[in-house]
Each structure stands twice: as C-alpha cells, then as structure tokens.
UniProtKB/TrEMBL annotation:
Coiled-coil regions, chain positions: none
Membrane-crossing segments per the record: none
A Pfam family annotated for this UniProt entry: STAS_2
PROSITE patterns membership: STAS
Annotated ranges, domain STAS: 14-108
SUPFAM superfamilies documented for this protein: SpoIIaa-like
Name used for this protein in its record: STAS domain-containing protein
Length: 108
C-alpha cells in the first residue's frame, strides 16, 4: 500500500506500507515513477515496510537511477529493520547515499 502526501508543489513524500516484494513492485513502480516525474524532489518513507525482498530492492535501485537520470532529488527515509537488513546484506548503502544507522549486535 502506498500512502501519498504532498508537502508542497516542489516536494512530495510517499510512504510505503506493508510489502515491498515481488508481489507489489509492479503496482508500486508506476506510482513511484509518477511521483518522481511530478516533483523536483521525492521522499520515500520506508518506515512501515514489513516485508522486503530482492524485487523490492531492485525497484528502489531503478527509481534511484531514474532520479539521477532526470536530475531529481530522491531521499529514502525511515528505513524499517527489514529494509536495513537487506540493504546491509546487499552492500548497497553507499549507492543509495542516504544516512543509515545499521546497528550490529555486540560480539561480547
């Protein structure tokens, strides 16, 4: 499910809730690309993502690449724990360029 709220005409925020998986990426792709094309800046809130898989990660990579191509600002915020886990596992934190706090368990 996507919850969309416009802050102003130049800045848009889209909150993704629930799944960001192979079962939802096709529907989300069009909404995210439309949000990106309609605004000079887009914020994707990932705080309510409960399931996240490789297809979801590919979608975020594609949207980030499209933003770069269009010269638009794209920020990912509120990373849920499942999002953080897969981004950490994939080694793509630097690619996204957003501040993340990945806490690793202590080995003590």
């Amino acid at each position: 499910m996507v919850n969309r709220r416009t802050k102003n005409q130049q800045n848009n925020r889209i909150a993704i809730e629930g799944e960001l998986t192979i079962y939802t990426v096709l529907e989300l792709k069009d909404k995210l690309l439309a949000g990106l094309s309609d605004n000079s800046e887009l914020e994707l809130d990932l705080s309510e993502v409960g399931e996240f898989d490789g297809a979801g990660l590919q979608l975020l990579v594609m949207v980030k690449q499209q933003a770069t191509t269009l010269g638009k600002a794209l920020r990912f915020t509120g990373h849920s724990s499942v999002v953080l886990d897969l981004i950490d596992l994939s080694g793509l934190a630097g690619f996204f360029g957003d501040p993340l706090l990945i806490v690793r368990p202590s080995t003590q």
